[in-house]
């Protein structure tokens, strides 16, 4: 059953990175493109009639890939799978292969001035799937492993209920980035995100281990789910007990001071009230009250 559910996660997954964008207007730009996909290179803002543009690989400078003169495309040796947009200055390269990985140079010629920029294009195989496997250990800990289908240089990250895991929730720090062990009291939706420079996949599972080592897990597909968003900063925790104790004493002291001042205020009020009535009884007449309503002091605690 576990294998079937894992296969469903692989089949239902969607790769983010079949088309990438890179700003090549700065010299030395590092660009990445998906194997078999498309990369859009921003070479200039827009083509000008007074300029001439050339794009070529550094391994073979004699072969010009793109040549633009007077705002017209004169040569494009890979026209079958590439295009250059004169209005926005983008070069689109489709159906990327490993041989497209190279250093490219882009020359801008304007009569006397010549500008040469270089960019490095690296083609990577995108991550195609993600699979999670979980197990209950003898003391109720939960071990979760994550693996990806294909992909060059995959990187793994973990979240719990949409936030980053803390050291207090992990049993120990593992050198393997695709495997974690959670402590006994930790439970929730554990998500694993696998990514590289051209794609990203995420999957998560609910896992709970009982005292008799029974594993209760539920696979959920990660697409369009908030649990597979970028991890947020974990809540701030106070690790030192002395800091907590000092804070508690301070709060109790403030509350006690408020109570004392409130009692003093009430005692003064009733003493003034009693003195007022005694004076009124000894008088031959009772003066009229200017205000019918008496003010009451309220203390918010």
Automatic annotation (TrEMBL):
Where does the UniProt annotation place the signal sequence?
Answer: 1-17
Which controlled-vocabulary keywords does the entry list? Glycoprotein, Membrane, Signal, Transmembrane, Transmembrane helix
Task: Give all residue intervals belonging to the Ig-like domain.
Answer: 126-217
Task: Please tell me whether the keyword Transmembrane helix is annotated for this protein.
Answer: yes
On whether Transmembrane helix is a keyword of this UniProt record, the answer is yes
Locations listed in the record = Membrane
| Organism listed in the record | Pagothenia borchgrevinki (Bald rockcod)
The record's InterPro entries line, in alphabetical order, gives: CD2/SLAM_rcpt, Ig-like_dom, Ig-like_dom_sf, Ig-like_fold
Its organism's taxonomic lineage begins at: Eukaryota, Metazoa, Chordata, Craniata, Vertebrata
Reading the lineage from the top rank, the first entry is Eukaryota
Name the record gives this protein:
Ig-like domain-containing protein
Q: What is its main location?
A: membrane
Task: Give a Gene Ontology cellular component term annotated to this protein.
Answer: membrane
Give the transmembrane region(s).
248-272
């Amino acid at each position: 059953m576990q294998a079937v559910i894992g296969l469903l996660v692989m089949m239902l997954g969607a790769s983010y990175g079949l088309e990438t964008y890179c700003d090549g207007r700065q010299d030395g730009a590092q660009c990445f493109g998906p194997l078999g996909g498309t990369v859009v290179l921003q070479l200039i803002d827009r083509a000008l009639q007074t300029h001439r543009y050339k794009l070529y690989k550094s391994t073979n400078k004699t072969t010009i890939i793109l040549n633009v003169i007077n705002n017209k495309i004169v040569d494009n040796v890979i026209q079958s799978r590439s295009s250059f947009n004169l209005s926005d200055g983008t070069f689109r390269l489709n159906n990327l292969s490993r041989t497209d990985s190279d250093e490219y140079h882009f020359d801008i010629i304007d009569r006397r001035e010549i500008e040469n920029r270089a960019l490095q294009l690296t083609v990577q195989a995108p991550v195609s799937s993600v699979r999670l496997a979980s197990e209950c250990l003898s003391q109720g800990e939960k071990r979760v492993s994550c693996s990806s289908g294909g992909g060059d240089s995959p990187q793994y990250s973990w979240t719990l209920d949409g936030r980053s895991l803390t050291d207090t929730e992990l049993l120990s720090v593992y050198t393997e980035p695709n495997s974690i062990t959670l402590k006994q009291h930790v439970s929730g939706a554990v998500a694993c995100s696998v990514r590289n420079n051209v794609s990203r996949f995420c999957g998560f599972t609910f896992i709970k281990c009982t005292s008799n080592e029974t594993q209760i897990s539920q696979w959920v597909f990660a697409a369009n789910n908030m649990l597979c968003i970028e991890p947020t900063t974990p809540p701030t925790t106070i690790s030192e007990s002395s800091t907590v104790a000092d804070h508690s004493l301070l709060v109790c002291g403030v509350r006690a001071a408020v109570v004392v001042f409130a009692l003093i205020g009430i005692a003064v009020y009733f003493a003034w009230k009693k003195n007022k009535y005694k004076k009124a009884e000894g008088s031959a007449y009772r003066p009229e009250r200017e205000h019918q309503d008496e003010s009451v002091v309220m203390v918010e605690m």
